[in-house]
Amino acid sequence: GQSLEQPSEVTAVEGAIVQINCTYQTSGFYGLSWYQQHDGGAPTFLSYNALDGLEETGRFSSFLSRSDSYGYLLLQELQMKDSASYFCAVSAQTFKAAGNKLTFGGGTRVLVKP
Amino acid sequence: GAVVSQHPSWVICKSGTSVKIECRSLDFQATTMFWYRQFPKQSLMLMATSNEGSKATYEQGVEKDKFLINHASLTLSTLTVTSAHPEDSSFYICSAREVGGGQGGSYEQYFGPGTRLTVT
Known about the structure:
The structure holds two protein chains of two kinds. Chain A is mainly β. Chain A has strands at about 5, 10-15, 20-25, 30-35, 45-50, 55, 60-65, 70-75, 85-90, 100-105, 110-114. Chain A is built from no helices and eleven strands. In chain A, strands 2, 4, 5, 9, 10 and 11 form a six-stranded mixed beta sheet that branches. A five-stranded antiparallel beta sheet of chain A has the order 1-3-8-7-6, with no helix packed on it. In chain B, the strands form two sheets. In chain B, strands 2, 4, 5, 6, 9, 10 and 11 form a seven-stranded mixed beta sheet that branches. The chains are: A mainly beta, B mainly beta. The interface of A and B includes residues 41, 101 and 104 of A.
């Protein structure tokens, strides 16, 4: 089975940096993804790590350490619009017919204050 | 970019009735679509994997006779909630992966806007 853990909530001020950690236990691992979801909206893809290291995409960066079964999402120069829930998700390739299923963590609610 | 639509965006139905939700990939073909359910302030739980031209694969604990999935074409999958009850009230989200993604399979799933189902 798969299980992912991430903090439930983080509060920070505009301009600050927030790091959201994600630890996972999986029976198979293909990669770690991060998604953003605003209240009432659909998840939108932020980043993906299949290999160890840091991936930077603008203000957001994502890190993976496969040996530690750990990753994080780094949000820099926080803006009010970044207030949302952030989910880590593991891709564990099972069999071809099912494709790469995603198993989501519980989500971290980020609240950005002025 | 890849767009996935869902219809309807919200629906209210009476207990005991059935509701059909459509998921369409608008500008790409998807051999695989996924159906998720999300309760308020909770995570997305995968219900089933919908494969074009074959039977869906359901996750453990999901009743296949209650949640009927049909993936009739490369751009359309439907989820029918049969004999809906108030506990089925939830946010249902589909996602799709493009045919022939990158080496090893595309890692990106494109999500629809979701359908909020309320059963009274």
